[in-house]
Amino acid sequence: MSSHREAPEISKDPVADSTDLYAFVSPDRPDTVTLIANYLPLQGPAAGPNFYEFGDDVLYEIHIDNNGDGKADITFQFDFSTVLQVGKTFLYNVGPITSLDAKTWNRRQFYDVTRIDWNTRGRGFDDGEGQRHRDDDGFGFGFRPKVTRLASHVSCPPCNIGPLSTPDYVSLANAAIAHLDGGGTVFAGQRAEGFYIDLGAVFDLGDLRPFQQLHNQFGLSIPELTQPAPGVNATKAVNVHSIAMQLPKNQLTAKGATPTDPSKASSVIGVWTTASRRHVGFFGRRHNHDGDDDHGKGVGPFSQVSRLGNPLFNEVLVPMENKDYWNTQPPSKDTQFAAGVQHPELSNLLPILYPGVFPKLAALNASGKARADLVAILLTGIPTGVVPGGFQNSGGSTLADLLRLNMAIPPTTTKPSNIGLIGGDAAGFPNGRRVFDDVFTIELRALAGATYGLVDPTFTPDGAATMVTDGVTTDPIDQTAEGTVKFLPSFPYLGTPHSGYNIPALADAST
After folding, report:
1. 117 contacts: CB under 8 Å, gap ≥ 6
2. pLDDT-based confidence at residue 479 (cuts at 50, 70, 90)
3. Phi, psi angle pair for 320, to nearest 5°
4. How do beta strands 403-406 and 268-280 pair?
5. What integer pLDDT is reported at residue 237 of this predicted model?
6. Strand partners, 62
């Protein structure tokens, strides 16, 4: 998975599990950038009576590095609170939910949005709840960053329950899109999972169904693996919870300018998301200053328990014993994980799992050369001169797992490629990430050696390196493609969540 259940401890804490991160220039509003951070993986739509929601005791954050040092220059914080509106019922709702203020909706959730400008001195405000200072900021004693409340008590939509409870879910979701003070829009709530992968096969010892007849199969005789097969999208019928923002580009740059020159480092931002919990929690009920019911808010400073920049980083490149530790670290300290990028385990496994298919990759592995191509893609951004045509999204030499986006590159609105940069589409991954980008195939091909020739012209990749895939794909235009899950042409782009009444997997099984 992109970052679903990627580490032992966070797999036990799904409400804080950051699963996917997207950052792209908005195709319908190219003067803005859209940021989407997903949490709560693999939600079954039929989840009553206690439907999914964000954690009141979790601090969710989206961070922006706009000077290339791997540290947050801007942080957006999201703090949630839950209200029981009806009471004395076990039900999530006691009738149809026809509006966000419907009296039939028992368990509602609200949130505040706060912006922290770490490099700007300001008095801001201190509510004693949402603010968290980074421990490696290097600021002198008494420095207080500028803190701005962008929105307060914004309503989340309900989960998509079914035709009786949520008869017009699209209207509910649209009503939950709110405006931010100073410009921009925000949404927080349930969405259809947009990440697609043949999860069952991939984690069955690297079975890629379109090529499974070439797998070494460990000496087993397995009839169903003697022929190629189409991929199966394991996330086709599940939902996630999304925090989405659409912001003017000049709100994300270091000097408040709108980036127009793709060759400048100032046009590039690095994005990552985190979830944090208090050191000490408590259970029971108290009433906060808004009259809402708080359960387990906790006290004391926050500790980071999850983070995500590039898809599949912790999932694939960090060994099991270090995964929980990786989730606690800031990107600025990712030098300690660089060996997993320079000499990735999966690159060494591919020639073993598929004998004779990747001989050139096997020779590259045996040479002991560090994978400078992967370091550029994942840890520094790609400098000018590597990709033909002058593309770059590098903010500097700091090794940090950030989703880097060159905001001066316009969105591709005519025939975008779902394999992004390696498909000739500079507006796609690893230049940020759009909701339809096939990040698993892109990274799998890079790990197979397809991109190493960009940094070493003497290397010619195996033919299979540019073809390998799990067989699950999507199409930005063809909405019937297997991986496509109701993507939207406008904010918040991820599709309407699957209804608990009409689950695609069950509907398919009944035919």
Report:
1. 73, 74, 145, 146, 147, 148
2. low
3. -50, -45
4. antiparallel
5. 87
6. 76, 273
Query: Per-residue pLDDT tens for 376-422?
Result: 999 999 999 999 999 999 988 999 999 999 999 999 999 999 999 99
Residue 120: strand, helix, or coil: strand
Residues 479, 472: Cα–Cα separation, whole Å: 14
Euclidean distance between CA atoms 278 and 502, whole angstroms: 38
Q: Residues 44, 45, 48, 53: what is their CA dihedral angle, to the nearest 10 degrees?
A: 80
Q: What is the pLDDT of residue 425?
A: 97
d(CA 392, CA 79): 35
pTM: 0.92
Tokens of 317: 């490149």
3-state secondary structure labels for all residues of 458-499: CCCCCHHHHCCCCCCCCCCCCCCCCCCCCCCCCCCCCCCCCC
Distance CA 236, CA 8 (A): 24
Sign of the dihedral through C-alpha 117, 33, 155, 13: negative
Residue tagged 């708080």 (tokens): 294
- The two tokens of residue 109 are 């959730």
> Hey, what amino acid is at 144?
R
Pick the closest to residue 135 from 270, 332, 299, 272 (CA basis). Answer: 332
CA distance 279 to 57: 11
- Residue 3: the pLDDT is 72
Backbone angles phi, psi at 109, to 5 degrees: -130, 140
* Percent share of the chain, pLDDT over 90: 78
Q: What is each CA distance from 223 to 220, 228, 372, in whole angstroms?
A: 10, 11, 40
Q: Region 112-139: what's the mean pLDDT?
A: 63
pLDDT digits (tens, 9 = 90+) for 202-237: 999 999 999 999 999 998 989 999 999 999 988 888
DSSP string over 132-187: ---TT--PPTT--EEEEEEEEEEEPPPP---TTT-TTHHHHHHHT-EEPTTS-EEE
Percent of the chain's residues with pLDDT above 70: 88
Tokens of 431: 């230049």
CB-CB neighbours of 11 under 10 Å:
14
pLDDT of residue 226: 94
Question: What's the distance, CA 328 to chain centroid?
Answer: 17
Question: Between 318 and 42, where is the model more confident?
Answer: 318
pLDDT at 511: 34
Q: Are 306 and 327 in contact (CB under 8 A)?
A: yes
Query: Where is average pLDDT lowest: 83-87, 142-146, 296-300, 338-342?
Result: 296-300
Residue indicated by tokens 């944090």: 276
| Contact partners, residue 248, CB within 8 Å, separation at least 6 | 31, 32, 183, 184, 258
